[in-house]
Design brief:
By secondary structure, the protein is α+β, with helices and mostly antiparallel strands. It has 2 domains: 144 residues, no CATH class; 415 residues, Peptidase S8/S53 domain (Rossmann fold, 3-Layer(aba) Sandwich), CATH 3.40.50. The protein is built from 15 helices and 27 strands. It binds 2-acetamido-2-deoxy-beta-D-glucopyranose (8 copies).
Length: 615
């Protein structure tokens, strides 16, 4: 950085003394505070020598421009539809201004933190530095404490933190401070040694396959899914150019030998892919294929088996991300990588245009109210970069309807009753996936155990314009039902749905049934990978960020789900949450996909069927 630049910064600040090149010294003021979520309580002071990997989100220079690009390239009526941005285009838009970086560096240097201690995301919009608690306490004028979750896990957090006033506009958030976000896998209702469904490989390719004969609600198989959603006759054509991916967190990984057993049974032509899919290991994430000693890998196995079983031969990358937002400080942990979600985001955003996958499925989320607004906003903006680059990003909508019964209260000290939306499903730049069950007709997924397709309205993100028409129509029909318990002008989710009940899965060498939006999310992501295959084969760009297309045109190619509701929050109203209705609803969105209609709607005229012709 040149001296001239430094003086420019000083000039901008119009501050006093010339003792150092930049004279940005202002008093500290609270930058952000967040209520401690009700499931957490403070138990002790944080050990002062405990190390934290601090992440500083420096303000992105041109996010509004990035958002504009995102909406233009994702709008089917815009002349730029499908003209996704390159890695470099995005980098230029999100890199912080030189002034912001200079001011942040100056402040860090003033606190004895040198350039060599810092590392950066590829766009330099995140700075990472590892420091002991006592130094962060002085840097952020705060106090860290140990908090314990009602499930026993502990973490070190500071609900309120400060910055010199002049930095408030240059830094979006710093974590870990006040975020209690720790998303958990959304696989529920595990039943070991119970398999159902048709194992038949004697597939006849019907013009109108008989779903009733092939599908059974307890033991959903790839054959059933491919028949129901109409991909069975489709032969992928460009799988080398098109990739799909899933993300593992919290020690979960994908077991190759279980996956081989699964595919051998349900998709024999795909079985070798159990040993061929790629792991992309981030921060020492697990790829362990050892014997299980706990219920680990149920999520991981469900995800990988669903995607390979459905969309073979589209190649799959399994991101596996180490680190956990929780730790036991009393166990003498000296380093603590608290934010695995950011580790993943920064890794994928740094991937080049020819290695980044076109589809990402993530089956992990947490209550939106555990995430400070500043942090949720920034993570969501980073997800928008993926959409701008043409990546379709899918998150599960949660497994508790409008909220887990008995815990539907706000964090904000008032303990007011409230529906509990889930993040990142509430982020407007991703596609949120709900779940269905049964066939002909499919209905909202619901089990007596309490599992219900998640849905609702964000308390943080306003409703994006692309949703206006669909959501207003729903709200009109809803009237004032439960109106006091959600924000009707928030981003509503999910956007679409897929089957998510009793999937046949192999885990620990055993036939197992697994349910959840954890099943529907990889399923829908895998289906979109096939749509991308057809688009690429037809010389068209991939789908990218789906929602603007979906709400404008795509919805016509989905089967509307009109029976059931987002059951949850038994303490509110009749405990049934939002009902599914004709048209879009916050339980199953626009419903479940019809592959043939989707590709025809996208103008891909013809796909190979098994008789070898175009249809
Ligand atoms: C579909 O399969 C079911 C169950 O095997 C059978 O009862 C029904 O008649 C079949 N329908 C058609 C149209 O083939
Ligand atoms: C990576 O994880 C493995 C298995 O959990 C562990 O044994 C190893 O120490 C870890 N390595 C690092 C560098 O953290
Ligand atoms: C992986 O699969 C093998 C064989 O099915 C099984 O013994 C082992 O427990 C599995 N490990 C994990 C981590 O799922
Ligand atoms: C895995 O399966 C074996 C039997 O093959 C069983 O003994 C073991 O308890 C199972 N592990 C878990 C964690 O359920
Ligand atoms: C360390 O953590 C484990 C796992 O939570 C806990 O059971 C154990 O008591 C802890 N040990 C100490 C010394 O605190
Ligand atoms: C807490 O949230 C509820 C529901 O959003 C709201 O009605 C109430 O005013 C809030 N209370 C405070 C103290 O912010
Ligand atoms: C509802 O959401 C909108 C948009 O996010 C926000 O501006 C408004 O303050 C929220 N209202 C309440 C009462 O929380
Ligand atoms: C496959 O395509 C051919 C040629 O268009 C058509 O005659 C045939 O009906 C199609 N078969 C199926 C099962 O769609």
């Amino acid at each position: 950085m040149s001296a001239a630049k430094f003086f420019l910064v000083a000039g901008l600040l119009a501050s006093g003394a010339y003792a150092s090149p930049i004279q940005a010294r202002t008093p500290y003021a609270v930058k952000d505070s967040h209520f401690v979520p009700s499931k957490w309580r403070q138990v002790a002071a944080a050990p002062s020598t405990h190390n934290i990997d601090l992440r500083i989100a420096v303000k992105q220079n041109q996010f509004t421009d990035l958002e504009k690009h995102l909406y233009e390239v994702s709008d089917p009526d815009h002349s730029r539809y499908g003209q996704h941005l390159s890695e470099l285009d995005v980098k230029k838009l999100v890199q912080p201004s030189d002034d912001s970086l200079a001011l942040v560096h100056e402040w860090l240097a003033d606190n004895g933190i040198e350039a060599g201690d810092l590392s950066y995301s590829s766009s330099k919009d995140w700075i990472k530095v590892s420091l002991p608690v006592h130094r962060i306490e002085s840097l952020l004028d705060t106090k860290y404490n140990v908090y314990r979750h009602e499930d026993g896990s502990e973490t070190v957090r500071a609900p309120e933190w400060s910055l010199p006033l002049h930095l408030h506009e240059h830094i979006d958030t710093i974590q870990p401070t006040n975020s209690f976000f720790r998303s958990s896998p959304k696989a529920v209702s595990l039943e070991v040694n119970k398999f159902g469904g048709s194992y038949s490989q004697d597939v006849t390719y019907h013009q109108d396959p008989n779903v009733t004969a092939i599908c059974t609600p307890r033991g959903v198989t790839p054959l059933c899914m491919r028949t129901l959603y109409e991909t069975i006759d489709y032969i992928p054509q460009v799988s080398g150019k098109n990739k799909m991916s899933l993300v593992n967190y919290l020690g979960e990984t994908n077991n190759r030998s279980d996956t081989y057993l699964f595919l051998e049974k349900f998709r024999p032509e795909a079985k070798e892919t159990a040993y061929e899919f790629q792991f992309d290991v981030i921060n020492n994430g697990s790829t362990s294929q050892a014997k299980v000693t706990s219920r680990i890998d149920i999520e991981g196995n469900l995800d990988v088996q669903t995607m390979l079983g459905f969309s073979y031969p589209v190649p799959l990358t399994a991101y596996t991300v180490g680190g956990s937002p929780d730790f036991i400080p009393s166990n003498g942990t000296t380093t603590n990588t608290n934010e695995p979600y950011l580790d993943w985001l920064q890794h994928i955003l740094a991937q080049s245009d020819d290695t980044i996958p076109q589809v990402v499925s993530t089956s992990y989320d947490d209550e939106e109210q555990t995430v400070p607004a500043s942090y949720a906003k920034r993570v969501c903006e980073d997800l928008a970069q993926l959409g701008a680059r043409g990546v379709s990003v899918f998150y599960s909508s949660g497994d508790s309807g409008v909220g887990g019964s008995g815990s539907c209260v706000t964090n904000n000290g008032s303990n007011a009753k409230r529906f509990i939306p889930e993040f990142p499903s509430t982020c407007p730049y991703i596609t949120s996936v709900g779940a269905t069950m049964d066939f002909k007709p499919e209905v909202v997924a619901y089990h007596a155990s309490g599992y219900a397709s998640g849905g609702g309205f964000s308390d943080l993100f306003p409703r994006p314009a692309y949703q206006d028409k669909a959501v207003k129509a729903y709200l009109k029909g809803l009237g004032d039902r439960d109106a006091a318990y959600f924000n009707a002008s928030g981003r509503a989710y999910p956007d679409i749905a897929g089957q998510g009940s009793y999937f046949s899965t192999v885990w620990n060498g055993t036939d197992t049934l697994v349910s959840g939006t954890s099943a529907s999310t990889p399923l829908i992501a895998a289906l979109v990978a096939l749509v991308n295959d057809a688009l690429l084969a037809g010389g068209k760009p991939t789908l990218g960020f789906l929602n603007p297309w979906l709400y404008k045109k795509g919805y016509r190619a989905f089967t509307d789900i009109t029976s059931g509701s987002a059951v949850g929050c038994s303490e509110i109203g009749d405990g049934k949450g939002f009902p599914a209705v004709e048209g879009w609803d916050p339980v199953t969105g626009f419903g479940t996909p019809k592959f043939r209609d989707i590709i025809h709607l996208l103008g891909v005229h013809g796909y190979w069927n098994h008789t070898g012709g175009w249809s």
